[in-house]
Design brief:
It is built from 6 helices and 8 strands; from the N terminus they run E-E-H-H-H-H-E-E-E-H-E-H-E-E. With 179 residues, the protein is an alpha+beta fold.
Length: 179
Amino acid sequence: MITEFDSYYIEAIQEKDAWSLCDFMVSNENRLKRFFPETLEKNLTPTLSKLFCEKKAKQFQDNEEFLFLIKEKKSNALIGLVYLKTLDWNQKQGEFAYCIGYPFEGKGITSKAIELLSVYAFETLQLKTLKIIVHETNLLSTKIAQKCNFNWIKTLPHEFTPPNENPLNMELYERYNER
């Protein structure tokens, strides 16, 4: 376990998480297909999820990319994901991407997870800059960035292309380790 708060805990992805990850992705498919298309595609069946979890657990261990799972303490149910990706160890920076299941949206869980994982990234991983890149229409994600002390930096033209759509401009938020 990385950390815990309220009725939830955050842990690194493990191979044993394949079934719950598949279930989470499929049950939240409509909300994930636009901004998490690759993760969704790789977790549509338990077999695909097993391969995905093996790969992500190895990447976590090798400090290539970190996939954290938010789970409910009482049931151990997977309720959300937080990636720390696009790591540049020379520049000491990384980018957060996150999603939460339908029943847990709007409860402050993701904000708390991003806040705690920002501390983890700064103190444990020694990163200096954290980024969040969101589309302007994703108001909840924008609110999370602002609530967690990420500052708007600029608009990134044609930064992300959702499936079957034109490229979208995205908003870049950053937070810096002040130590």
